[in-house]
Amino acid sequence: MFFDQENECMDREDLKQLQLERLQSTVHRVYRNVPFYRKKFDELGIDPDDFTSLDDVRKLPFTTKADLRENYPYGLFAVPLREVVRIHASSGTTGMPTVVGYTKNDLKTWSHLVARNLVAAGITKDDVIQIAHNYGLFTGAFGLHYGAEKIGASVIPISIENPKKQIKIMQDYKTTTLVCTPSYALLIAETIVDMGINPNFFSLKLGIFGAEPWSEAMRKEIQEKLKIKAIDIYGLSEIMGPGVAGECEYQCGLHVNEDHLLIEIIDPQTLEPLPVGEFGELVITTLTKEAFPLLRYRTRDLTRIIPESCKCGRTLIRLDRIKGRTDDMIIIKGIKVFPSQIEEILFDIQGIEPHYQIVIERKGFVDELTVLVEASEELFFDEMRKQQEFINLVKERLMSELDIPLNVKLVEKKSLERFEGKAKRVIDKRTY
Amino acid sequence: MLRIKNLDVHYGKLYILKKVSLHIKKGELVTILGSNGAGKTTLLNTISGLIKPTSGEIVFEDRNITGMEPDKIVKIGISQVPEGRLIFKTLTVEENLLLGSYHRYKIGRKKEIKNDMETIYSLFPKLKDRRKQLAGTLSGGEQQMLAIGRALMSKPKLLLLDEPSMGVAPNVVKEIFVHLVELLKSLSLTMLLVEQNAKSALKIAHRGYVIETGRIVLEGSSEDLLSNKDVQRAYLGRDLDAEVII
């Protein structure tokens, strides 16, 4: 199913032409309207007339979160504030929030792009969509809300509520699609079990999850517990919010809305472009945004381009699922580890609940990593010896696959904190 | 159908078009907006081969036509309606139309051309009424229709229109634009329309480009351009500053 087949299945050559035209006009507009970029261009000797191929995007300087903060709140806007009809801020997962703006046209484009992603996921106007993202400065709820409305689906803007209320509404209103963070979906699934309800009696068939990285193992867990198909959607407020990329029904990578965004994958250390297919940091240049265009924005999200074409017929390129964020990366004794890697292994072990926390401490000169995992009830046996054996098993699995020293601690079921929005998996107690 | 990449045009030392890239899909009506001297006419003249670009490429139906002679470009299906119409005022309407088919005028093809002329007359009945009249005696609107008719006599796939509303009474502009939309459908044409009258142009176009001092600074659907504040301020004559004070 397509929302905008003409553009989603455009011939790659035509797409490249369109991207080039839009890159050229974006560079001109940004140079003319954003003093920050004009100054940067002048300093670096960049001529806005000098962009003749998509590869020329590499001539542009990167834009980072720090640039956004330094220009807080409105410094990077390309239109006067009176043309801005909406202001959002990043969720500030890490550090201070950053402010973004939308013109009327930007909001229209945003709805359109999210609508594409939702239709690709399998949503139609007959669906009842429960949006359990926080409505506020966070872009997630509004973006998905607009996209769903554009398709003509019925939207329930429940926002964040306690899980029991979510479940009640889900039953009473015959929700077919749940939209939230994957960790919140798990919490809802768990609550359903606690309440003794059989999820087969729900009308729920689809979940659209995003706003934080989640593993394939977590997807499996959610799909089994809620008896739904779980679809990954990707976006970030700096670029627009959801609508940057999303999975189609085949669940094999996220199609990027390339006619509006130009993407690159770079090595986060050397900042050089990486060959297609290699994992690196995703960098995005907006091609049609009016209020808040960004050149080569470093998303800090790690992914790769999937070079093969997709069964669904879309010609839009696919990104692999986000492996982690460059700033979530844990470096222990020089080895890089992402929470998602730990998650993948844990979810694969029988007897563990899908909740975990990673604690990093510094003891003397040595960093120590401890993984806290919840054991299922039947496993929290009284026999110390058996418990120890189980801990050793988990520890060995983790150590052999990650190749780092670590400790494992078993905690009681439901003793770890649950999250309604984005989950906080890593607690870094090191002081620098 | 048409794909232009990084087109550079100089008049002597003057740099007129700067890395212009644009495309037109089959069946589309695309408009170019821009103020006087932005490079709109230069762009059309470069596409039709009257001006040779310094660099860049123009590809028409997968064929590189950069630097091709104008008569050849007409033959492969691009025809231009020039600014100010440039009809032959001392010739009759019919003679003007005949000139449009000059490149395919051969003995034995008279009938075919005759048929084409009838098609033009059915599209513009006013021209038929005045077929024997000298073109110079026609009204501005009629002259414009004649110029369009003449361009159509070469059986183009892509029609380039340079300011068709210029020097024409406002109510006639409307009539001409209605004709353009009809032509687009009935002859399955593709059109590139350069127009000062931005509002009317955006109303009939599918997409548009905004050109400023030789550079394309904006591209988008007509709907998006109509609601873009920069376009409103510069080309639709909307005084946004005044509106805020009220």
Could you name the key traits of this structure?
heterodimer; A: 432 residues; alpha/beta; Rossmann fold; GMP Synthetase, Chain A, domain 3; 2 domains; globular; B: 246 residues; 4-stranded antiparallel β-sheet
Describe this structure in words.
The complex is a heterodimer of chains A (432) and B (246). By secondary structure, chain A is of the alpha/beta class. Chain A has helices at 5-8, 12-33, 35-44, 65-70, 104-121, 139-151, 163-172, 182-194, 216-226, 339-346, 384-402; strands spanning 86-89, 99-102, 128-131, 154-156, 177-180, 206-209, 229-236, 241-247, 254-256, 261-266, 280-286, 297-303, 305-306, 318-319, 324-325, 330-332, 335-337, 352-363, 366-375, 407-411, 426-428. Chain A has two domains: 1-326, Rossmann fold (3-Layer(aba) Sandwich); 330-428, ANL, C-terminal domain (GMP Synthetase, Chain A, domain 3). Chain A is 31% helix and 24% strand. In chain A, the strands form five sheets. A nine-stranded mixed β-sheet of chain A has the order 4-3-5-6-7-8-9-14-13, with helices on both faces. Chain A has a four-stranded antiparallel β-sheet with strand order 10-11-12-15. A four-stranded mixed β-sheet of chain A has the order 20-19-18-21. In chain A, helix 9 (216-226) links the parallel strand 6 (206-209) and strand 7. The termini of chain A are far apart. In chain B, helix 3 runs parallel beside helix 6. The termini of chain B are far apart. The mean pLDDT of chain B is 89. In chain B, strand 7 (158-162), helix 7 (170-186) and strand 8 form a beta-alpha-beta unit. The longest helix of chain B has 17 residues, at 170-186. The interface between A and B is medium-sized, with 26 and 24 residues.
